């Protein structure tokens, strides 16, 4: 059994709230830090998050706060801010953490500018933290409602990964273990970009055959990037890579796929994002992924096409035409 009894969650969005719900159901004491006072008030007063997770009854054990300092007594931290805000968030929480505090990164993205994965951002901001990553096919609403899901918990310290997994596991939320933190993160980053591509295909009415081709060739891109970064192909063939890719590319419930769907139906990016209170991480990650893969010398034509569409460099139809007219090559 894990010795962890008290979880601190940073981020009161849909996924942060869902992870607080998981921790509470696992029997942990939970403090959830959110930036929005109205979210904190609703969670503490009515046990709901009507802004980011409407219609879900939250566990009464979840205590919400706007203050990062209130997380100081926790046994471990789940960091769930948007990826592009991860550095600022970790810098803010650092003074309140004990040396060696386990920090489990639950955001999927690549930092613009530095082209860093979230574990690299953690290493640079809180060097003595014990790092872990949680990733896998999991829609926040389903997890929060208690529907079954399985995820990967990765840490270079296998004992830490096991302790964290045991702490948050419930019959409805099943973590699997990994030590390859790079592979686990890479899968989470690229699946968001590839989901935009699948949404575009859906919006254009290109059919299920094209959808399957995008997932399969997108998975090949994911594997190449993970290996180039020092990760393992075996890792991305699991829940945190292939599993997450299949889920995110298969339902408009995915924020990233819904953006692609709107683009495929002729909307501009501004129109596709209008009115959304949740973050589609793939929109921010796509240009960083393109910069990173060019730097690594890795061929990622689907991710390149998505980045070009989002940047307004190429029209959707021209991007599709470009992918379909690529030279014939070996599949592997």
From TrEMBL:
Gene3D superfamilies named among the record's database cross-references: N-(1-d-carboxylethyl)-l-norvaline Dehydrogenase, domain 2, NAD(P)-binding Rossmann-like Domain
Pathway(s): Membrane lipid metabolism; glycerophospholipid metabolism
Presence of keyword Lipid biosynthesis: yes
A GO MF label: glycerol-3-phosphate dehydrogenase (NADP+) activity
Pfam families tied to this protein: NAD_Gly3P_dh_C, NAD_Gly3P_dh_N
PROSITE patterns registered for this protein in UniProt: NAD_G3PDH (PS00957)
Keywords per UniProt: Cytoplasm, Lipid biosynthesis, Lipid metabolism, NAD, NADP, Nucleotide-binding, Oxidoreductase, Phospholipid biosynthesis, Phospholipid metabolism
Residues annotated as the enzyme's active site: 191 (proton acceptor)
Main location: cytoplasm
GO biological process entries: carbohydrate metabolic process; glycerol-3-phosphate biosynthetic process; glycerol-3-phosphate catabolic process; glycerophospholipid metabolic process; phospholipid biosynthetic process
Residues that hold sn-glycerol 3-phosphate according to the record: 108, 136, 138, 191, 244, 254-256
Enzyme Commission code(s) on record: 1.1.1.94
Catalyzed reactions per annotation: sn-glycerol 3-phosphate + NAD(+) = dihydroxyacetone phosphate + NADH + H(+); sn-glycerol 3-phosphate + NADP(+) = dihydroxyacetone phosphate + NADPH + H(+)
InterPro entries linked: 6-PGluconate_DH-like_C_sf, 6PGD_dom2, G3P_DH_NAD-dep, G3P_DH_NAD-dep_C, G3P_DH_NAD-dep_N, NAD(P)-bd_dom_sf
Binding of NADPH, residues: 15, 35, 108, 140, 255, 279, 281
Binding residues for NAD(+): 11-16, 140, 255
Subcellular location: Cytoplasm
Superkingdom: Bacteria
Function recorded in the entry: Catalyzes the reduction of the glycolytic intermediate dihydroxyacetone phosphate (DHAP) to sn-glycerol 3-phosphate (G3P), the key precursor for phospholipid synthesis.
HAMAP family: NAD_Glyc3P_dehydrog
PANTHER family per the UniProt record, alphabetical: GLYCEROL-3-PHOSPHATE DEHYDROGENASE, GLYCEROL-3-PHOSPHATE DEHYDROGENASE [NAD(+)] 2, CHLOROPLASTIC
Name used for this protein in its record: Glycerol-3-phosphate dehydrogenase [NAD(P)+]
């Amino acid at each position: 059994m894990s010795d962890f009894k008290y979880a601190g969650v940073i981020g009161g969005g849909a996924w942060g709230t869902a992870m607080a719900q998981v921790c509470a159901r696992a029997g942990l004491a939970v403090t959830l830090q959110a930036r929005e006072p109205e979210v904190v008030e609703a969670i503490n007063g009515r046990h709901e998050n009507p802004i980011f997770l409407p219609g879900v009854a939250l566990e009464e054990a979840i205590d919400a706060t706007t203050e990062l300092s209130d997380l100081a007594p926790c046994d471990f931290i789940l960091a769930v801010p948007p990826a592009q805000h991860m550095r600022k968030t970790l810098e803010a929480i650092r003074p309140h953490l004990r040396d060696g505090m386990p920090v489990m990164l639950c955001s999927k993205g690549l930092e613009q500018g530095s082209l860093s994965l979230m574990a690299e951002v953690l290493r640079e901001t809180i060097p003595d933290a014990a790092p872990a990553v949680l990733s896998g096919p999991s829609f926040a609403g389903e997890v929060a409602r208690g529907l079954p899901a399985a995820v990967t918990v990765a840490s270079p310290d296998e004992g830490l990964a096991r302790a964290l997994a045991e702490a948050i596991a419930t019959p409805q939320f099943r973590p699997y273990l990994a030590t390859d933190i790079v592979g686990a993160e890479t899968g989470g980053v690229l699946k968001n970009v590839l989901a935009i591509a699948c949404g575009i295909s859906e919006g254009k009415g290109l059919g299920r055959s094209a959808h399957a081709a995008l997932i399969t060739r997108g998975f090949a891109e994911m594997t190449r990037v993970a290996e180039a970064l020092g990760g393992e192909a075996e890792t991305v063939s699991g829940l945190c890579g292939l599993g997450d890719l299949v889920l995110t590319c298969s339902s408009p419930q995915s924020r990233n796929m819904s953006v692609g769907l709107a683009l495929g139906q002729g909307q501009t990016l501004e129109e596709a994002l209008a009115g959304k209170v949740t973050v589609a991480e793939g929109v921010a990650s796509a240009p960083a992924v393109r910069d990173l893969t060019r730097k690594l010398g890795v061929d990622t034509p689907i991710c390149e096409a998505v980045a070009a569409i989002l940047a307004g460099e190429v029209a959707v139809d021209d991007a599709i035409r470009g992918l379909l007219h690529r030279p014939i090559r070996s599949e592997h």
